Amino acid sequence: MFAGFVSPHKQDGGAERVDLWGKDLYAHLTDLYENRARFCIMLVSQYYAAKLWTIQERRAMQARAFSEQREYILPVRLDGVARRL
Question: How far apart are CA 74 and CA 25, in angstroms?
Answer without folding.
Answer: 22
